[in-house]
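Appendix B, record 7
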Amino acid sequence: MSDQTLKERFHAGESVNQMRLLNNSTVEQVQAAIKENNCDLIYIDAQHGAICEWDIVRICAAAEELDVPVQMRIKHLREAYLIGHYLDVGLFGIKVPEVKEVATVIEAVNAFYFPPFGQRSWGGWVGYGVQSRRDRLEYAGWWNQNGILGFKIESVKAVLNIRELVIPGVDYVDFGPQDLSFDLETNPHPHLKTVEDCVAFVHKELKGVDVCIL
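Structure tokens (predicted):
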């Protein structure tokens, strides 16, 4: 088993066993899935499925009992300002969909990380891992070194702007090939003809940059 943290493994490009669960999963279903699949990270999707905060709380609490964190794709990029709140109810990782503008990434980073790196508000003794770190500064420092933040590349604009979008605090990017295909079809580019072209461009642009490309 690797001694690296999950965040370090993302940055190193190591394999992370991430398992997607239904948003209505019960405590028993969450824990059974973790035990059966030996997963490193649970993934839930708020963008394309019904979910309420109690679903997030239930899934996160059930997974944390087995020391497994939960990542969620938020409903919309305009919800970046709510990231701190989502983290307070138990999430460990956040994925922001459809990112195109640097302003969105800045807002996400500020909401995700505690000062002095970000601007996340202290919510009291809530959040993943807080119960074993009962000092405010200790927890904030631990969080800033361990929480996982990423975003999806789903447009030609995001592809072309990728070097500007990947600011400090972003751990990974991944592709939404279907939405990216829609954008390629409606906004033709002279050199980026396919999703594969876009993937190759991003890899070239981010060579040497400390961010994981999934």
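Remarks on this record: The chain is about 40% helix and 15% strand. The chain has a mean pLDDT of 96.
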